Structures are given as structure tokens and as C-alpha cells.
Amino acid sequence: MNHNSASHPFVLDEGAWEAPYFLAPVAGYSDAAFRAVCAEMGAALCYTEMVSAEALVRGHKKTKILLERDPVEMAYAIQLFGANPATLAAAAEMVSKYKPVVIDLNCGCPVPKIIKAGAGSALLRTPEKIGEIVRAMRDATSIPISVKLRTGWDKDSINYLETAGAAIQAGACAVTLHGRTRTQGYLGQADWEAIRDLSARADVPVFGSGDVFSARAAIDMRARTGCAGVMIARGAIGNPFIFAELRESGDAGEIPSRRVAETMEHHLSLAVQRFGEKSACMEFRKHFCAYTKGLPSGAQLRARAVRCSTFEEFSQIFKEMKG
Ligand SMILES: Cc1cc2nc3c(=O)[nH]c(=O)nc-3n(C[C@H](O)[C@H](O)[C@H](O)COP(=O)(O)O)c2cc1C
């Protein structure tokens, strides 16, 4: 493994390393309101969803809303995607004013439109390009730069040591490894052995991602792979409680309906304040469905929630759930 030349190391408050569990970048979910809820529950760091470097540089107004953070979110990370080193460098410089802990480069997105543009997991095919981009970003800002990788393009081209090595040599301060190939998408089982292998070899913190659906699984991932931190994506959607459980070191069992309703109400009110009632309520429908998965009478509640367009309408459901 190449040696690190990170001029800006990855730094979190000391206490955060006691429970280094992070909210992953999740497009369509990891907005400022949900990140605030996860931060309050105890997530040590929350990532924005992937933000287009191209759109930022062009001054696209809607893109900026993805970057704003709630005051309760003391530490957050911004993730950028793109393919052009100069554009990513300019975007990294632009987002530095938000003072994220780290600016992360997306090298994992499997969506065809993104890949066609040479971004996301397309970058896995050219490790030297990852190095070039990281170097350009690093030279453009004093905020540390990290990368988020998949294990490789497909099972015949597993190359995480190479891609991580290129990023680290170019100055990346940390690497997240989602233990799947691009071809796997989100199917199959994540390869924790690859996370263990990279964690053992890299001289920067390695964060593991993939298949952490419970507090117990997050603790297991750390124990089995020796990774420095665990990133949680699908396991946190509708379940920010996972971060509270991790603070308290274990699975808490079923979350009572009342607590789910109170948390949703808080989440939605933060979203309304930030994004306006109409947009927040439309977006909240999918969160509601995730929060109520597995709850008694969840199906009936969801059938009503998918028609709600005002805070008041949602509040009526929350009230009933609180009993
Ligand atoms: C709906 C959805 C959106 C995602 N968006 C992003 C993203 O914007 N950036 C990124 O690096 N990964 C993204 N991911 C990948 C996750 O961050 C994570 O690496 C992956 O889902 C595996 O973790 P999990 O098993 O905890 O879900 C996304 C995943 C899902 C399911």
C-alpha cells in the first residue's frame, strides 16, 4: 500500500472515536433535516448526499440547498461527484466555506447516467484518474479530502487496493469502502473481508460500508474488520434510532410507536422550516413509509401518509400514533 501524503488529516472530536458511526451519503434522504435528527441521536458524522460538482460550478441554485446544515449538526461531511479534476477542484474550493470536516469524492455511484459522464463508479476503472482528482481537490482547499469506493467494477476486476492506494498517495485523508462491486449494485452480500484487508494495510482511517442494518451489525463490522468507522445507509433510513442504540452499546429492540411518532414530528418540522411545507411534506412521505415499516397498523398509516401534503395532515397521524 502506498504511503500517505495527506497534508490535512481526518480529524473528529476525540469523543467521536468512541462511537464512530456515521450516516452515509444517501441520495434523496441525507438532507439537512434528516442529518440533524441522526446527529441528535448520536451519529458522529453525517454525510450530505452526493452533490454535482458541475452543477455547483455552474451556480445551480437548487444544488446549494443540499449543502446547508442545521446548527445542531456540529460536524458534517460534503460528498461531491464529477469526473473532471478542474471542476472538482473548483467545487471543493467553493464548498470549503461551509466548513465540512471532510470533502468526499464519490467513486461508487452505479447509476448509468452518472457512469456515462465518467463519474461515480466509472472512476474505479482508472485509479490514476482518482489520484489526479484527489490531488487537484487537495491543492484547491485546506479541508481534508477523502474518497468512497466500491471493491471494483465487477468480480473480475476487484481493485480496491489500487484505487485506495492511488487516492492515499494523492493525499486522501481517509477511505470508505462499500464492500460491493459496481455490477452488484446493492444486491448480494457486502464483502467485509475486503474492508478488513484494506483496514489492515492502509495508513489512513478506513470506514466500512455495507449491510449494517442493526446496532449489533455495526459493532460486529468494527470487531471483524478493524475499520476505524462504520457508515450506515439503508439501516438508518426510517431508523435514526440506530445511532442512539450505538451510543448505548446495543440493540434496544422494538422502538415504541410513540417514540417513532415524536421523532417523525421533529424530523418533519425541521424539514418544513428549511424546505417549506409543500416540498417537505412531499419528501417526507417516503421517510414516513420507512419509519413505520414493521409497526402494527403500519400499512394503514402509510396508505394515509402517502396522501398527506400539509404538516397538519401528518400531525393528525402522529397524534393517533402517540395514543
Ligand atoms: C437510495 C440510496 C442512495 C445512495 N446514495 C449515495 C450517494 O449519494 N453517495 C454515495 O457515496 N453512496 C450512496 N449510496 C450508497 C450508500 O452510501 C452505501 O454505501 C450502500 O448503500 C451500502 O450501505 P448499506 O448496506 O448500509 O445501505 C446510496 C445508497 C442507496 C440505497
Task: Walk me through what this model shows.
The protein has 323 residues and is of the alpha/beta class. It folds into two domains: 14-247, Aldolase class I (TIM Barrel), CATH 3.20.20; 257-322, Putative flavin oxidoreducatase, domain 2 (Non-ribosomal Peptide Synthetase Peptidyl Carrier Protein, Chain A, Orthogonal Bundle). The protein is built from 14 helices and eight strands. The chain has helices at 32-41, 53-57, 61-64, 85-95, 112-116, 127-140, 160-169, 192-201, 215-225, 241-247, 257-275, 277-291, 298-305, 311-322; strands at 21-23, 45-52, 76-81, 102-107, 145-152, 174-181, 206-209, 229-232. The protein has an eight-stranded parallel beta barrel, surrounded by six helices. Helix 6 runs parallel beside helix 7. The longest helix has 19 residues, at 257-275. The radius of gyration is 19 Å and the shape is globular. The chain starts with 20 loop residues before the first strand and ends with a helix. The mean pLDDT is 95. The site of flavin mononucleotide has 22 residues, from strand 2.
